[in-house]
Write a structure and sequence with these properties.
The structure is a single chain. The chain has 108 residues and is mostly helical. It is elongated and about 65 Å long. It starts with a helix and ends with a helix.
């Protein structure tokens, strides 16, 4: 049995999830993955385990930035639906102007 499998079983028996791991437990998982890879037991066929552990090691602000990066990447993907919506908005005069009261509150 691999060290990763042993680690996963231990985490499962402790009724833990990737979001409730301590930093020490998460590092143990990374160690198990590295050890198994060095001994040829695992390769990168389980990148989701590494990403889940990485996420559990991040602080809340780092996780928020990670989600923001993902949202930014998804939002920048061009689709026919977005192009049609943008063209429709252009026919209506484009993006609505912000009210003057908003500009004053930002500059104050």
């Amino acid at each position: 049995m691999s060290k990763l499998q042993d680690w996963q079983d231990k985490i499962y028996m402790a009724n833990k999830t990737m979001t409730t791991l301590t930093r020490k437990e998460a590092c143990g998982g990374l160690d198990a993955i590295a050890d198994d890879m060095m001994h040829g037991i695992h390769n990168m066929a389980q990148p989701d385990a590494i990403l889940a552990i990485r996420h559990s090691l991040m602080t809340a602000s780092e996780q928020g930035a990670d989600y923001a990066d993902a949202a930014r990447a998804l939002g920048s993907i061009r689709t026919d639906r977005k192009a049609a919506s943008s063209a429709e908005n252009g026919k209506k005069g484009g993006r609505p102007k912000k009210p003057d009261s908003w500009r004053q509150s930002v500059t104050d």
